[in-house]
Amino acid sequence: MISPSVREQACEPELQRRKRVVIALDGSPAAAAALPVARVAAAQLGADLAGLHVVSQPTTEATVRDQLQSDPALACDVEVGDPAAQILATAADPKVALVVLTTHGAGSQELEGRRDMANYLGPVAETVAAHTVRPVLLVRPDPDTKPQVAVSEFRRLLLPLDGSPRTLQALGPAVDIACRLGAAIDILYVTGPGHRPLAERGGISPPRYVDQPQHEWPQWAREVVAQLSGCIGRRMTDLPLRVFHTHGDIVDEIANFASEHRADAVILVRRSHLEPGRARVLRSVLLRTPCPALLVGMPASTKAASTPP
Amino acid sequence: MVEQTGLDLTVRPPVQGLEAPERLARPFRALVFDWDGTAVVNRQEEASVLVTLADALLQLNVWLVIVTGTNYGHIDRQFCRFVMPERRHHLLVCTNRGSEVFGFDAAGRLQRRFARTATPEEEMALDKTAEMVRDEIQRETGLDINIVYDRLNRRKIDLIPLPEWADPPKSQIGELLEAVERRLSEAGWSGGLGAAIQLTEQAARDQGLPDARITSDVKHIEVGLTDKGDSVVWVRQHLFAPAGIATDDVLIVGDEFGAIGGFVGSDDRLRVEGGDAVVVSVGPEPNGVPSGVIHLGGGPERFRALLAEQVWYHRQALPAPSAGIPAWLESALTPPSDPSWRLDEPTYHPAIEHQVESCFTVANGAIGVRGSLDQPTIASAPLTLVAGLYDTPASPMAVPALVPAPNWPQWQIAIDGQPVAFPSEEEYPYHRTLDLQRGVLLSSWTLQDDAERRLHARSLRFASLADRDLVAQVVVLTVDQPVVVQLDIWLETPEEWLTLESAASDLFVWQTTGTGKRLALAWTASLRVDGVTHPPDRRNLRISWSWVATPGQVAILGRGVALARELPETAPDPSERVRRAIRRFEHGGLGQSFVNHVEAWAKRWREGDVVIDGDADAQRAMRFALYHLNSAANPDDERVSVGARALTGEAYLGHVFWDASIFVLPYYIFTWPAAARAALMYRYHTLPAAREKARKLGYRGALYAWESADTGEEATPPYVVNPAGQVVEILNGTQEQHISADIAYAVWQYWQATGDTSFLLRAGAEIILETARFWASRATLEADGSYHIRGVIGPDEYHEGVDDNAFTNVMATWNIERGLEVADLLADRWPEHWDDLRRRLGLTPNERDQWRDVAARLTPGRIIDGVIEQFAGFFDLEFIDLAAYEPRTIPFDVLLGAARVQRSQVVKQADVVMLLALLWDRFPPEVRAASFDYYEPRTGHGSSLSPAIHALVAARLGKLDLAEDYFRQTAAIDLDDMMSNAAMGVHIAAQGGLWQAAVFGFAGLRLCADGIALDPRLPDSWEALRFPLRWRGRALHIEIVKASQQVTVTLHEGHPMVIRVGDVVGHLMRGKAFTCRWGAIDGRWKEVTQ
To answer: Could you report the predicted ipTM of this complex, rounded to two decimals?
Structure first.
């Protein structure tokens, strides 16, 4: 944990102005199961938690309360229209720091029992995750609608890296959130079989020449942090960071590391609109990791978009 | 308010105290000058000063025309080849007494511009003229008169072919004249030299050569078809006239204008069509000079002074390309055009910034300054290091580390009170050029504030190679709109490491936080706006200036910083040292400091450059390597050596490994012996710690630290947290003991290459004896009757705790053998020294007998089918096909796991191959070939040290494609940074390895007892390889040209020596070229020296 003073110094001022965590609720037990996680996140971020319920046509407050069966103390906005579009519109508000979603809400009940790569997200979560500019915390409920792990506090976040500059540059919001949460970050660099040197200039690679490991690895770890600092434009030397490197199947390594090191969330970077056939690693990690996933980053072409095309 | 003080930004006239006639006190656009006696004393003279001056004049677009009677080869070997190729375009060499004119194209390649070709009839007439003269004089006097026939378009009649007058220097022309006249008259020749010349004129006319040129240097009478005047005429007509160079733009310099023997001096021909040209003689001129010739005298030394004055006049006369920028500064800010001399990074990119900083470091062996931005961002890791300043943090298991000095090159600008910087997390146009030739970092960029007001900055930074306590910086600022500018410079203390002890206005002293060592810094800075110095606002560690800037106005910030660490025994307080350094800087001026620095670099390049024709990438990589090698050493400091990343980064904590002795040192030994000696003296000064380490481990003698800092105590970190998060014990500090033999090897190599007796007696012998003593105590006699060394790590660090590592055992044996040899040598040649040393070390005859026994019976390990076994049991380990894992980005111990690698035949780096490279002649050819073929595919190259040694050995074995591939891998380690660790500093050992791959590998250089041996094999893409070399006080130049299949070795300085090229053994004479050609038919080298 880092001290509040350090936190204030290290955190992005813009984030300090974003004071809302929005959780999308649809009345399904799965969506409601994400609520405890959202409460923890909001509390640690020092933000207000707001519910968002989208209905297809105007209805009464009593009906909504009946549908949601949620905590009456939870402030909940009700919007009329397409759920994904309304969540995206709400998330576009700069005051929103984080959107919390369950991976499979009411609209994806028919997918129960066949959650594979193609269906790692329900339709609403998929659309929102693909297009929002805000960080999204995805909570995957297990079949009896419990979140996969009980998160009482976000203490340790797992940040897998592929070392590419685009990934590095997308990590600013994730570091902001980790900073505000007061969570430590474990950076995990995974090289898979047949790993090639990065084509993009400025990426991070593990050293091929390790002349003396007693110097090379600590220095490499410092260099990873420094390079990340440079790419996101803020110093990370005061944050509790550890850097790891493993070799093997990327998804296996991330999932195993998350389990072994008790990660409270895994940070994943979007590099596409999650079109079919793309984001294989991201989808697989979502399926395999036992903890919520914090989705950050945005393909450059849609950086300014806040609603689906 | 302004004041007319501050740093002097001009270059002073380089010659003081010489009164030059007024007619010389201006810049000339062309200098036409004689060679022997004028430019050089003789053709054996080392001409580096002359080259430096010529380089400077050529860079200023001054034409230099050498007019000589000799052939081009002589001038080339002494001069032309050392002139920077890109500057040769205005250099002309008129040879063979007016018969040829050579010039150079834009790339510096030689071109023959003019040649006079004699007809067969003319050749015959020349012969007959000379023979007629000889016969007539002989008939009259009976004297022995010789004819030199093999000269282009001329013949020489030697009037005094006596040994004592074989090669008379120009300075003895008076004595020579007397001797010739006496010889002729005593033999009955009336009229002396004048009559002989008249006879020659008549004979030439009789042979149908009415326009024959008759000249005399007193010893000879020359009859030819051309003289120096013919080439001068050609140059004027074909080059000067088109360039608009009038005769009064030309300065003619010679040493023989006055009449000799009643005949005009040989250089008087230079005055043909002289017109208004200014003519100067620097010769003794015993009979005076003709009217119009300025007689200065002073010989070549005065000639060099003339050139220096011309440099100064030209620099003064140059129109400033930008208003307010001195000419020297504009020139200084201009990088070389040749891409092999520069490294460019046009854009700031946060993700690669650290790598750029490492590669673009400027350093001088005492101070290193990373190539960080002048305005560092969050992605920057600016760092200034002072060699030898180590500190050990007060924490358990901490090891000493090189301390970051206060950062100094940064500055900040504010426009109308608002700080201006560029976005740190985005790419931004910021052009950096590392000028390898001059050792300067040049930067150029534009800042823009929110109101779109732009400020353009150009800066240069250097660590003075001429004054190693100094680093300096110049920043040139211009604006595009009138604004109020505030400029701040400051010193940034790394408070984790340093505590300020005292602060005066310009002098600060810090103490390291752990052990209280002192570091002193003195600085001076000035700001000039359009030539007027502005007063600074000084506040402790910060200096500020404010002024109203307008478009077209130039502001120049000049800053000099002196840094020095305490030297416990000689200078515990370094304050005075930095104060003196800053005084020197202020007294000479920034411009002069820069010129001195550039000249020091020019000297290093003359003595250590390697030229590779045909492969631009290899050439650039080589220059990059040599730049960093020359930046890393300090011949004046015996208390430091070269750390694993030199002074380019904080990685490896500045620790000194075996890299310094085996990979880096050879370049210094063969090109810069003073730097090599200082680095070896560091090992001598750390010998007590090496003895103590051996003692603690239960051995005798000296076991050097695997990682060494200032004291030489073991500085290897005992543990590391590996990337998987596991704590791993580091065994190198106790098990990697081959370093003692490596250091002994370096000492011996230095001694063999330099013959530096004073070093051997003062330090070298003791190191060799004490390391030999260690090995003799380290080896244990076992039941099999052999000595064994168990539980070590060889160069292949994937295998720990192995027994009888071949590299270790053979090097240990070699070390003991050298110990015995040194003992015998000292006893034989310096018995008093030997008695003293023997007593001091307690070395008894019995102990030496034990050494002999160990050397004879220490097992070298198994050799099966010609393959040396790397260590006992290696052949039984699992074979892993490494090629199946390519391409890969990570080392094999990560890929496969450390445990499996330890059980396998995967080799981290050259081990047996390293042994072959070091002790090549110790193994028969079949063992070398078989061992390399066996280990090469088993080597994972997990160390940056590995590819270069594979390149070296592959080249020697004739596997040229493979060698070239490894050469390129070595070159890419830092330049391409494909493996992401150049950010932590340049791999200096790999750079040293690159030089070795070229010189020891492709040129096949090896040391012999009486000289050197070459066995050249160039890779496909290389057309030629050229490099200078020093051997036992001699200066050599080696040229290998593929097209002609020739090797030419020239001895420029020093006594004759033996040279071997393949099987050919020759004797090198000073000033003479030794040439061998490869015979494709019989596959052998043959001497073809002409």
So the answer is: 0.81
